[in-house]
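User: Quick one: structure for sequence A, then sequence B.

Assistant: Sequence A:
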Amino acid sequence: MAELLPQELRILVAVAETGGFTAAAAALGLTRSAVSHAVRGSESKLGAVLFERGRTGASPTPAGERAVGHARRILRLYEVMGAEARGAGRAVDPASPAGVLRIAAFRSTALHLLPPALERLTARHPGLCPEVRVVRELGAGTAGEVAAGRADLGIATLGGRQDLPPGLLTGVLAQEAYALVHPAGHPDPKALPLLDWDENCGSCTRAWWQERDWIPRATVKAQDGGMVLTTVGRGLGMAILPELSLRGAGEAVEITDLGPSGPVRQVGYVTTPESAATLAVRALIRELRSSNA
């Protein structure tokens, strides 16, 4: 099979991200015919149709989604190759990573798990510039961002019902115990309505929930755990939240331990084999592990 050239990879990514050949051409400074020709050539080389063409634009087929993800990851390796080669040529600390480090994290980890690790990381490697994107841990979640080539490393929930995209590397960073959260001083918190949010419903604790007859069906749902915590503090219900979501809880709420048989979820990192070998990702993993040692 003939190999795709870097420019062909850039064109595939541009078409996917802009939603059409004309928009991709404008973004890359090319003609539409040049973009169309390059896409047809890439499809011929790969032996698969990569985009569905229509009057409103172009959208990736399943084969196209996979190809575009690989294209982003390959182009990212070109960037890392340049950054690490330039770093190796420096007289001072040639092993110190530099450049952009792209991280995807769900909200509670972005608020509480990442900051201390990033503080130490950038202090030790001032040439490194982390970029953090908050991604809801639904569907493909943060692992999907890594597989699609939009992040070098993702902070994800591991061990749940959702299978990770194939070919990714993972490592556990922490285990979060869940706790019952209710308005402070309430005489019978288990009688209150249950508040929940979508990301929590998809967690690996669902089987535990279903086995407890005192947990009612959720009657209030929110966008994230922070909103749930605020709503509980106003006396409108009780909730079952993981440890990271409880940090910073005020005096208006009370936290009750669920005991040794209570639900626990794993939080870890997700990356690709090629990113795992880079100086920046290796340094970040070390700091994340240090934060949770």
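Sequence B:
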Amino acid sequence: MTLENTIAKALLQVGAVELKPNDPFTWASGIKSPIYCDNRITMSSPAIRKEIAKGLAEAIDKKFPGTEVVAGTATAGIPHAAWVSDLLDLPMLYVRSKPKEHGTGSQIEGKIVAGQKVVVIEDLISTGGSSLVAVEALKKEGFEVLGVVSIFTYGLPRAEEAFKEAGISFVSLTNYDALTNAAKEAGSIAEADLPMLSKWHSDLKQGLLK
């Protein structure tokens, strides 16, 4: 079994991902979605969070050798960054979505050492916007950002284009296709719902959903 399938099954098992083809969720953007992903749920499962941390750490070792610092995005990326930095025995930071409005007004929490090579830990990549906000904040403080590693991605061309334009590589442990396949194998969704799930994802990738 591949890592993406293992993680997809784990997310379904712990309830971090729900699929409701016939009773869709509504995203903050207003898009009706048959899938809702909340990777914060994995914090409550020691076995699954360890599996995720191991996968993230291995991805960093493989894709971004020379990493000196692990940075989590606030808030969902923070706990995973903590577990990964512990596994890799590396310093950790976390990056706010915007500078705080009190005290030092900092956007990055942790010791800042300009020139250090950092990898960003994100829980989920949709358009890539929040990840790239963190990347820019780190660059502004003098870090060399090697890339972004996430638990899950929707695999949207918009995200791929945004990362490419920013000159940043990214890798995810699992994705939408692996998730729907895992749900099918587990009997979480009906065979008859698969075409609709595939069409929804295709429409999302093409920017047809508003």
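Residues 46-63 form the longest helix (18 residues). The longest strand covers residues 144-153.

User: Thanks, that's what I needed.
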